[in-house]
Amino acid sequence: MKKQVFADVSVEKEEGELLFRDASAYLEKNQGVIKAIVLKYSESGLFGRSDVDDVIQYVNERMLTGVLEKMRSQYKPMCRLMPYLSKIVSNLCLEYAKKELKRNQHEKKVDYTRSHFGTKETMSEDIAMREIIEQLEILLSLYGSRRPRIELLFKISLRIAITEEDVLRCYPKCNKRLLNRLLLSFNDPEEYRMAPHSDMYGQLIPLINELEGTSKTADALRKSVDMKLDEIAEILNIAPINAALTRETVKMLLENYYSEFPKSMENVI
Amino acid sequence: MQDLFFDRNGHLSDLGVSQYVDAIRSGTTEDLPHELVTHVEKCKECKKEVLRLHAIMADIKQEESVPGPQPVTPVQKTHRWPFYAYRIAAAVAFFVLVGAVAVYFLTSTDEITIVDEPGLEQPLPYGPEETPPPLMEDEEPADRDTEHLEPADRDPEYRDPADQDPEEPEAEDRRAEEMLRDRYAANFEPLTLYESMTEQSFRSFGLEILAPQTGSEVRDGVTFRWEIRYDDPLIVTIIDNHGDRVHQGTVSANEYYFDDFPAPGLYYWRLETDESLLFVGKFVVPAL
Question: What residues contact residue A245 under an 8 Å CB cut-off, 6+ apart?
Answer without folding.
Answer: A232, A233, A236, A237, A253, B193, B243
